[in-house]
Structure formats: structure tokens, C-alpha cells
Amino acid sequence: MAEGSFRRLLAATALSDTAQGVFTMASVLTAAGAAGSAWLVAAVTAAATLPWLVLGIPIGMVVDSVSRRWTLAAASLGRAALMLLLGWLLLAGNAPAWLLLAAVFLVGALQVMLETSAEAVLPGIVERTGLTRANGQLAVATRVTNQFVGPAAAGVLFGLSAALPYLISAAACLVAVVLQVAVVPTRTAAPGGPARFGAGIRAIARDPVLRTLVTVSGVTTLANAAFLTALVPYAVAPGPLMLSSAAYGVTVSVIGVGAAVGSLLTARLAALVGRARVLWLSRVGWALLFTSPLVTGGWVFMLLAGAGSILGGMWAVMALTVRQTTVPRELLGQVAGATRSLTYGATPIGAALGGALTAAGGASSVFLSAAAITLLLIVPLRRSLSERRLRAAEDRVSTG
């Protein structure tokens, strides 16, 4: 492992994702304080998530066409400029709704470029045997900063000044730029042809390992969206679990902490039982999470949900590592972009299905259906992602 480059990438990721967490929460708070806030909050949420669905493929092409450390730095620099502009306009009292939406969308697009570039550059600075551990550390940095530190800091900063969260986020992005340009891969991708639209999707379609990974990720995303749609009215009083809003917030935090712990433990468990078993054991974790609301007692629900998220959280790290070791480096950006677009497309479908199923059969039917579907995914995982098949896929990349 190029320890210096990885440490710089890890620090840049922590800074960048803190900035993203602050910016995302601040943009929602800004929208909530504007006239006609209901539609604007919804529009801000849509603008933040839309780039993941529609821009993954073209951004993957860009990442595979130029130096990845420069796409990392360019993405952070662009985000800093947009955040500074928005902060300055808020200070001047002249930040119209359309500009807020445009900034949120563009920052989201640059975040897609940032994460795709980081995924593609990592195999160039970390040995194959260290990828799982490195991915776990990056996943924890992202989860802690983006989901916990950033939003909490945004609330405090916004209380002092509506512009302050944007200015602080911009400063964090600028520091990240300095670190990102110093990330120097020791191994570079083999020269490939020009990036072509759809190359990532074609690579996924013809490779059984990638095809299975994307299918399982998409179905899990769909099931999770349905689960979350049904969970809030079921868990929060006057729902059956009778949790207060504060207790529900603690539960969500417990799930996040569990997933972070799972990310850190992925490499150790893989060393003990193998990568293939980690992949299908993660299905057991997701199923436990999905059925946890069916128990009686809020604390038992929290504990089961947290335990399930430990195993469930290992999926993202292990699946990412497998993708990095079974895809030629010159295609990593395009495959990553296609994977994100295909997976994120399942979220609105899952939310709609969750709402319809809740109305028809109650929340418990959603929880049981999500768990059953998740457990059934063990079948294709064991068939297509055995340790032997994973090694064969890696060998094809190494010798190809």
C-alpha cells in the first residue's frame, strides 16, 4: 500500500464528506426557511439525488478518460466554488430559489464524480490484499462525517448565520483539493480505447460476477426503500412500537453505527470465512434488520436493528472490493457509474411499492416481504459468487 497516498485520500474523503453533510443539511434548512418551503424542500431533496441516477454513466466516462486524481481535485474545487457563491449570495440577501436548486444539483453531480474517482483510483494506491480494509476505512469516514458530523455541524452553523455552513463547507473542500492532488497512484490503468457510452453497462451484462453484484445491490436497495417507507409510521407513536421521535432518531443512529462497525470488521471476517461467505452472510444481516420492527419493545428493536446492520453493512465494502478486483482498471469509472445509476433507480420504485404494500397489507407485510426477498438472494450469490469464481474473475483481469 502507498501509505502516504492512502492517508491523504482518507483525510480528503473525511473533509469532503463533512463538507457534503454540512451543505446538504444547510440547503434543506435554507429551503425550509423560504416562502413556499414545502415544495422547495422536496425540490432540494430531488435535486440532490437526481445526479446519482442520471449522470453516473457519463461521469464514469469522464473519470476513465483523464487522470483520476485530477478528477478528484476538480470535483472538490468545483464544489468549493459553488458553495462559496451560495454563501456569498446569502450574505448579500440575494439567493433565489432557482439558484439554490441549481447549486444543489451541480454539487450533487460533482459528488458523483468525486466518489466515482475515489473508487477508481484506490486500486492504484492500495495492493489487492489491502483493498477490503481500505474500503472499510473509507466507508466509515464517509458514514461518520456525512451522516453524523456534517448535519450536526450544519445545524449549529446555520443558527449563527445562514451563509456560514456554505463558507465552512467550501473551506473544507479547498483543503481536500490540496490532499487530492498529492494522491499519486503507484500503478496506473493499462491504456484503453476512448470511453464509450454504455461500456459500463455492457461490462456488467456480460460478466456473471458483476451482473450478480448489481442485481443483488439493486434488489436490496429496492427492499430497503420499501422498508423505510413503512418503518416511520410503524415505529413512531401512535404506531405499534410507540417510539418517541427522539427514540426513533437514536434507533437510526444505532443502525448507522452498526453499519460503520460492520465496515471496519469486513476485512477480518473475510480473512476468517472468505469473501463469498461474507457476501451471502450480509443477506442474513439485512433480513434481521428488516424483521426487527416486528419484535415487541423498542430497545429490543434497536438492538436487533443494530446487530443486523453490522452484517448488512459489510455488503457495500465487500461488493466494492470485488468490483475493484474483477474489473479492468481502465473501465473502473464506467462500471462504477453504471452500477450507481442502476442501483439508485431502484429507490423510487421501492418507495412506491412499500407505500402500496403498506396500504394493502400493513407494514408487517412489507417487513416480511423485504426479509424474504433478501434471504432468497443468497441463492444467486452462492451460485455465481463462489470463491472459485471470484478468483477466476480476478485472474482474467490480471492476465488480460
Automatic annotation (TrEMBL):
Record's protein name: MFS transporter
PANTHER family attached to this UniProt entry: INTEGRAL MEMBRANE EFFLUX PROTEIN-RELATED (PTHR23513), MAJOR FACILITATOR SUPERFAMILY ASSOCIATED DOMAIN-CONTAINING PROTEIN (PTHR23513:SF6)
Record-linked InterPro entries: MFS_trans_sf, TM_effector
Domain of life: Bacteria
Source species of the chain: Actinophytocola xanthii
Chief localization: membrane
Membrane-spanning intervals of the chain: 37-63, 212-234, 246-266, 278-295, 365-381
Record keywords, A-Z: Cell membrane, Membrane, Transmembrane, Transmembrane helix, Transport
GO cellular component terms listed in the entry, alphabetical order: plasma membrane
Subcellular locations according to the entry: Cell membrane
Source organism phylogeny: Bacteria, Bacillati, Actinomycetota, Actinomycetes, Pseudonocardiales
Membrane-topology annotation of the record: Multi-pass membrane protein
CDD domains in the cross-refs: MFS_MefA_like (cd06173)
Record SUPFAM superfamilies: MFS general substrate transporter
